[in-house]
Write a structure and sequence with these properties.
The chain has one domain (2-253). Helix content is 22%, strand content 20%. It contains six helices and 17 strands. It has helices at residues 83-89, 99-113, 121-132, 196-203, 225-229, 240-253, and strands spanning 2-3, 13-16, 22-24, 31-34, 56-58, 66-67, 78-80, 92-93, 143-146, 155-158, 161-166, 169-174, 177-178, 182-183, 189-192, 209-210, 221-222. The strands form five sheets. Strands 9, 10, 11, 12, 13, 14 and 15 form a seven-stranded antiparallel β-sheet that branches. A four-stranded mixed β-sheet has the order 7-4-5-8. Strands 1-6 form a two-stranded parallel ribbon. The longest helix is centred in the middle third of the chain and has 15 residues, at 99-113.
Length: 272
């Protein structure tokens, strides 16, 4: 779907960091997300940071649909630099606009856990919510880890800064993209930001979408060139058809059934 632009001069508080924090920042993102309606009529956020355990990440452009980013009482659009950022914050692929990605993610989850059947979306949401949020403090849950024990695509905090683990190096994260890679020893202790089950999904073969500033490592997928051409200061997005076709091809190679995504409703909250 196309995302309609807000006319105010200061950016809305809807950009998400790898820790899951939602802040105001002028930089654009490559994916959109949702945690339910968490804004007030003044289009600002209060204390609540989610209304549902269904935390998803979506494409920005889908079948020409256009939506307000903060419609009253419906849903609050959140924005991520890329998919590894969304995964670090605990957002799984949407089952509608990213149907093939969702199936690939769930199948990788099944393989990682040795499960007999692919888990349903609601089951993923319950499990992920327990991993990403402390029930008592409602804050982000992080875990200590050794860099060498983590797959490419894991997001960590090292020396106080968020970074993407990629090919034995840490790429510093920012809202504008990634910095130059810094080699890291496998024994280096880091603070793992990505939920453990998503780390297992990455290790099982799921290849997330990464911002162009990270280069073209084989562990990741690149956003379609059409999506980059649409980036501007007003309305921008990801070409769903190109992205979906590439994922469908890879999913079919893995023998995963991938039905055509169901239509996205024009009104009401985003479904899973």
């Amino acid at each position: 779907m196309d995302v309609m632009t807000d006319t105010r001069t200061s950016p809305l508080q809807n950009r998400v960091t790898p820790t899951g924090e939602i802040i105001s920042h002028p930089a654009r993102g490559m994916l959109m997300g949702n945690r339910g309606c968490i804004h007030n009529p003044e289009r600002t956020l209060g204390v609540t940071r989610w209304r549902t355990r269904m935390w998803i990440s979506c494409v920005l452009y889908w079948r020409g649909r256009r939506r307000d980013v903060m419609p009253p009482g419906r849903w609050t659009a959140l924005f991520f630099l890329d998919e590894v950022t969304a995964l670090s914050a605990g957002h799984r692929p949407c089952g509608y606009c990213r149907r093939a990605d969702h199936l690939w993610f769930a199948e990788s989850w099944r393989a990682a856990g040795g499960m007999a059947a692919r888990p349903r979306a609601a089951e993923l949401d319950v499990w992920l919510h327990a991993e990403r949020v402390d029930r008592r403090t409602r804050s982000k849950v992080t875990r200590p880890a050794a860099a060498g024990d983590l797959p490419d695509g894991a997001m960590v905090r090292h020396d106080g800064a968020s970074a993407l683990l990629c090919e034995g190096a840490l790429l510093p994260w920012s809202f504008d993209g990634y910095g130059a890679p810094a080699p890291v020893s496998p024994r280096t202790r880091v603070e793992l930001l990505t939920p453990p089950s998503i780390v297992a999904v990455l290790a099982a073969g799921y290849r997330p979408l990464v911002h162009p500033s990270a280069g073209t490592p084989p562990s990741f997928r690149q956003f379609p060139s059409a999506s980059l051409a649409r980036l501007d200061h007003q309305v921008y997005g990801v070409g769903f058809e190109l992205l979906e076709q590439g994922v469908l091809d890879e999913v079919r190679e893995r023998g995963i059934a991938a039905p055509h995504p169901a239509p996205l409703p024009l009104h009401g909250r985003l479904p899973e």
